[in-house]
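Obj: model holo form, ligand = dihydroflavine-adenine dinucleotide.
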Amino acid sequence: MYAGAKALFFALSRSTMLKRLASRYGMASPDSFARRFIAGERVEEAIEAARALQSRGLRLTLDYLGESVRTRSEADAAVQEYVHLIEVIVASGIERNISLKLTQLGVDIDRATCVENLRRILEPAQRHEFFVRLDMENSAYTDVTLDVFETLWNQGYRNIGAALQSYLYRTEADARRMNALGARVRLVKGAYKEPASVAYQDKADVDAAYVRLMRLLLDEGHYPAIATHDEAILEQTRAYAAERGIPTDRYEFQMLYGIRRDLQASLVARGYRMRVYVPFGRQWFPYFMRRLGERPANIGFVIRGILRER
Ligand code: FDA
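Output (holo structure tokens):
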């Protein structure tokens, strides 16, 4: 069921009919269904959502949605959007933290273009003391993402980190590589449909790997981000950190915008660092479909939303 739902929603995410329907109804009004997971299509809406989160003691990272870019001009436009986003965030006074994907910056065109595009973002980001996180995409991009990361790290950029996925067999080695560099890891379970040749297929195995990696990162990592909504794992993280005497400012929790807001608030109330990933932009459909694939019950509110708006 776990892998099955992901596969189904992955297939649906390629449906142009569904995309058209979703684009028409998903963000049309303030209570449209996609707004549960996406802050808005415009940067101003993302800033407003970020301000509201900050006022409740939450930290944040802003993600300008986009991926699978095939042309230089699209990749260039994404770079310009990010540079603009940096300026808008500085002017707004909210926390300086952004997330991005390498397929948005042209990694499918060629690696050199992607490195240069990322550098164009890291330059102003570094000047304004931003932290920049590279999201991790499907397993075809794991190597190149870590290589691009390391290239820029070796050029002296230290305001960067990457995400690693517990469902991949290779991740322990990658986590050790990041730890040896002194780089920050965001640990996630993984949101893509992956074959058994590279990834665990059973949820129990993915969860067990997550716990092993969480411990490795808390013991040997550098300000790791434990990014999950899984209550049992959150509990195990808190217990492990307490047992090892690791203070709450040596790591942080992260969750996605609109998911388990109750848990987000209760962690803040108990004195933990909690960062919310705030996605925005017009290219929200693939991100949205991954959120449905994680929890097929979400399809209910989508259908209700479409029926209400028709
Ligand atoms: P799990 O799927 O076991 O869910 C645990 C509980 O959380 C569920 O029982 C439910 O209550 C709630 N929940 C989870 N997903 C939900 C949803 N969509 N709707 C409603 N409730 C939901 N992935 C990736 O491949 N690359 C990346 O770079 C990132 N980046 C990233 C950043 C941050 C801050 C987070 C929190 C997550 C990611 N992810 C990601 C996504 C991640 O890989 C994973 O798919 C989701 O976090 C869901 O898995 P959980 O760890 O929450 O556990």
